[in-house]
Amino acid sequence: MTLCKTALPALRDGGGTITHLAAASAAEPTPRGAIGNVFRPGIYGLSKLLANEEGERGVRSNCVAPRGVLSDRIESKITARAEREGISEAAVRELRVEELSVSELGTIEEFGDAVVFISSPAASYITGAVLPVDGGWSKRVM
After folding, report:
1. Which of 1, 22, 117, 120 has an alpha carbon within 20 to 30 A of 88's alpha carbon?
2. Is 60 in a helix, a strand, or coil?
3. CA–CA separation, 86 vs 82, rounded Å?
4. What's the CA gap between 71 and 123, in Å, rounded?
């Protein structure tokens, strides 16, 4: 919120984009994620609020919602789960892939491409949206 407040005066002068990153599980809470399940939807709400309130001033606001993107954080979660459950990291990766509609975990580059797109002039008519970058993990219709 503080960063948004700081950036808004400059963005209002020339137009611009605020792109929030919030896990896809904000829309579909996961087990054992109480803190994230409480706070992540607030990021979606903040993004929508900014889109509605600042759109007339040329400011767009959107969320990118990752799930199944193989980052350092996900690698550490895979390692921890493998140790906790006594199975191989490869087996944990396979379990994560089984949650998706695609046949492999996403890459940091694929995630970055989505962020670049939604933040770019190519997405100039998109605001107040949540772009899932989740390999089809999300099962909701809307």
Report:
1. 22
2. strand
3. 6
4. 25
Q: Which residue has the tokens 């954080």?
A: 73
C-alpha distances out from residue 55 to 12, 61, 94, Å: 9, 8, 42
Q: What is the pLDDT of residues 62-103, one digit of tens each?
A: 999 999 999 999 999 999 999 999 999 999 999 999 999 999
Top-level class of domain 1-69+112-142: alpha beta
| Placement of tokens 């767009």 in the chain | 60
CB proximity list for 103: less than 8 A, separation 6 or greater: 97
Amino acid, res. 56 = E
Question: Taking phi first (over 0 means left), then psi (-120 to 50 degrees means alpha), and beta for anything else, what does residue 122 get?
Answer: alpha
Encoding tokens for residue 21? Answer: 């990153």
3-state secondary structure of 111: helix
Question: Whole-prediction pTM value?
Answer: 0.88
Nearest to 69 by CA among 134, 128, 138: 134
